[in-house]
Each structure stands twice: as C-alpha cells, then as structure tokens.
Design goal:
This protein has one domain. It is globular. 2% of the residues are buried. The chain is mainly α. The model has no long low-confidence stretch (mean pLDDT 83). It has 5 helices and no strands.
Length: 80
Amino acid sequence: MFKDPSTFWLGFNMKVKLLGGNPQLRQAISFAIDRWQYARLFFYSRRAQVAYGFLPPLLSSYDLQIEEAVGPTFDPNKAL
C-alpha cells in the first residue's frame, strides 16, 4: 500500500470576531470533530492517519509521544 506524507488541517479565521475572540468556542469545535471519521469519509481510509501535530506520522521525525501529550481530541461531552 502506498503511503503519502501529505498533511491536511482545518483552521479558524481568527479575524472573525465570534471565533477569534472566543477560545472556548474554538476548543468546543475541536472536541466535536472526530478526526478518524473525517479521514474515513474524505480520504481513502486505509491511507489516512491522524496526526496530533504538524508532522504526519509517516515522517521519521514524528514523535509518537505527542499523542499521549495531546490526549483525546474527540470528546462530544466536552464539546457541549
């Protein structure tokens, strides 16, 4: 299977007052996104991997310990 070290991300337009001035809302949106489900739906699921930082897991410089440091990123209860 071919693997590709591409990286995709979702970002917030911080110039929009509702988002830029509301870190709690940005955090709630972040908790509401199921990254594995997103990858499964929009990318070929066997190729996609979720990265917990800027580097994709395919690169040798990717630090596996970042996943433990970041912790769970999808938590609908925290998104409420």
